[in-house]
Specification:
By secondary structure, this protein is of the alpha+beta class. Helix content is 52%, strand content 15%. Strands 4, 5, 8, 9, 10, 11, 12 and 13 form an 8-stranded mixed sheet that branches. Strands 3-15-1-16 form a 4-stranded antiparallel sheet, sandwiched between helices. A two-stranded antiparallel ribbon has the order 2-14. The two termini are 37 Å apart.
Amino acid sequence: MSARIMAITLWTLAWRSAWNRRFVLSLTALSVALSTFLLLSIERVRADTEASFSQAVSGTDLIVGARSGSLQLLLYSVFRVGQPSNNIRLESLQVLERHRAVAWVVPLSLGDSHRGYPVVATVAAYFDHFKYGDQQPLRLVQGQRFAGLHDAVIGAEVARRLGYGLDTSLILSHGDGALADNDHVEHPFKVVGVLAPTGTPVDRSIHISLEAMDALHQGPDMGFGMQAFGFSPPREVTAALVGLKSRTAVFSVQRAVASHRAEPLMAILPGVVLDEMWHVLGAGERTLQLISALVAAVSVLGLVAVILAGLDSRRRELAVLRAVGAGPRQVWALLALEGGLVVACGVLLGTLLQVGSAWALADLVLVHAGVVLQPWAWGAAQWMVVGSVLLAGGLACLWPGWRAYRWALADGLTPRV
């Protein structure tokens, strides 16, 4: 018998044998599918979360704030998480803006909120210079930028969850808004613009002017009441986004900020700090991957156990194959192929489940977590997961074949008493 005919025969026998025991093997294949789904999902979410965080701000070369921890500065200035240790004087940013290597400076003032959503006070240039993703600019789907002290521009998530639109009136609160006494009820704002979804913290932010933020905290006799007489500019801000004329000057500008004598400042590179953050979170990622790998190992061992449990009942079947000309190697290959088919079907099903669920939940995850899932963007890590499960399953299925290989022909043809 030629090698080609032998291979076709083995595949046919393996498929029919597996089909005859399809119920038990289907459960095993489902177990492999779920473990594959879990491994791929963790890797997909990890990669897309890292990409979304990395793309939360692009085109910004430096972030300047009060001297503290670099991760703390990044979290509260970009992701609106945590609180700043101190504010910085606007005069310091004006000095920075005059640096020959600096192209633009966009100040940010944080600290207020509205129904749990952070308020970001900034300047009109924020809408020109802030970029996200692949250098994508902010875009208004309704209305216009803020112009007056009472104007607010809201993110897409704020508009969707709270049902806000143009001309909606809203009351800002000092801090997290937990206490009603902190509400600025005397100074209501009006929504004049709604931003398009970005998948970044911008979607969960309310934007007002720096002058409006300063006016809110000057007391009842100042601020908004002084608008007609020429309101003075704000004196302090929380942080600033900085763009450079050339990225080669990033370290010289960083040193200039650190050596500023008027007050202690620091400038961070967003990409570098994000890498540090992922390094800190690496232990958690590895723990999840280890748990998923153990689930996959249990699934593969379950498959081996099913095949081994069925060997005794198949002694006569395998002996008949030996009697009609199949050698020990062919019997070994037959059992390995059966297990390999189950593993391959499980991996295929798990892969389809992962891609399908990522595609179906992409919009929901974007809205609620701000993470852009990319179901079709497979990288080396995903292929490595699939290859590892297939390889582990294939190697594990060699053991039952080896046991059958060692059986003598008479073992299956001699009736047991």
